[in-house]
Design a protein that fits this description.
mainly alpha; 6 helices
Length: 221
C-alpha cells in the first residue's frame, strides 16, 4: 500500500498514511523524481547514502585488500625457505637413491626416467628459492621505507586532527546513523590525506584510512 501524497510505502493492513492522513492506494501512478515530495526525496537520499556506506564497509567480491611491503617480505621469506628446503632435500634423496643407499626395486630405465624428472623438479625448486632470496633484499628495503612513510603520515594526521574535528567538518553529523556517518568520516579523512600527501596509491591510501579511522573511532569498528 502506498500514500498517494508523500509516496511512502506501508505494509498490508494499514489504510491511512500516518503523516498525511489520506487513504492509501495499492499502486502509484507513474511519476518522475521531480514529482516526489521533499520528505520522500530526503528519505531516498538517506537510503542511497546508507547503501554507499555499506559498500565502503563491505567491499565487493573480488576486490583486494592492500598487503603492505613487510607482509610481502615475510611471505616471500617463507616461500624462499620452503622452496630451498624441498629442493635440497629432494636432491639429497636423489643422490642417496643413485648410490643405492635408498634401494628402489625398479628397472634401470625407470630409475633413469625418475632421476631426470624428479631431479629437474628439485633443481627448479632450488632455482625458485635462490631467486626469492635475491628479491627479498630489495623488498626488505622497500618495507623499511614504507613503514617509515606510514608512521610519518599517521603521526602527522593524528597530531593535527581528532575525532571531534573530523565530525565538526560534517554537517548534521549528530543526526546521522552510524553507517552513514562512517561514509562521511571516511570521505573526510580521504580528502585530508589527498591534500596533504598527493600521489598516494589508492590501495595504500585506503589502508591508511582504515588505520586512522580505527585510531580515531575505535568504538565504531
Amino acid at each position: 500500500m502506498w500514500c498517494p501524497k508523500c509516496k511512502t510505502e506501508y505494509i498490508d493492513g494499514i489504510t491511512k498514511c500516518a503523516d498525511c492522513g489520506v487513504d492509501l492506494v495499492e499502486e502509484l501512478p507513474a511519476t518522475s523524481y521531480d514529482d516526489l515530495s521533499g520528505e520522500t526525496r530526503e528519505k531516498l537520499s538517506h537510503i542511497k547514502a546508507v547503501e554507499e556506506s555499506k559498500s565502503t564497509l563491505n567491499p565487493k567480491e573480488g576486490s583486494t585488500r592492500y598487503i603492505d611491503k613487510r607482509s610481502q617480505y615475510e611471505e616471500m621469506k617463507s616461500s624462499a625457505y620452503t622452496f630451498l628446503f624441498v629442493g635440497v632435500l629432494g636432491i639429497l634423496a636423489m643422490i642417496l637413491i643413485a648410490l643405492d643407499i635408498i634401494p628402489l626395486h625398479m628397472a634401470a630405465y625407470m630409475r633413469v626416467i625418475m632421476a631426470i624428472v624428479m631431479g629437474g623438479l628439485f633443481l627448479f625448486f632450488l632455482f625458485i628459492g635462490v631467486q626469492s632470496f635475491r628479491k627479498m633484499k630489495g623488498l626488505s628495503g622497500e618495507a623499511d621505507s614504507e613503514e617509515t612513510l606510514t608512521n610519518e603520515i599517521l603521526t602527522s594526521f593524528l597530531d593535527g586532527h581528532t575525532a571531534a574535528s573530523i565530525d565538526a567538518s560534517i554537517s548534521d553529523a549528530g543526526a546521522m546513523e552510524n553507517e552513514q556517518l562512517y561514509f562521511y568520516r571516511y570521505e573526510q579523512i580521504k580528502r585530508i590525506l589527498s591534500e596533504d600527501h598527493p600521489g598516494l596509491a589508492e590501495d595504500y591510501m585506503e589502508d591508511l584510512i582504515e588505520k586512522i579511522y580505527t585510531s580515531l573511532f575505535p568504538d565504531m569498528i
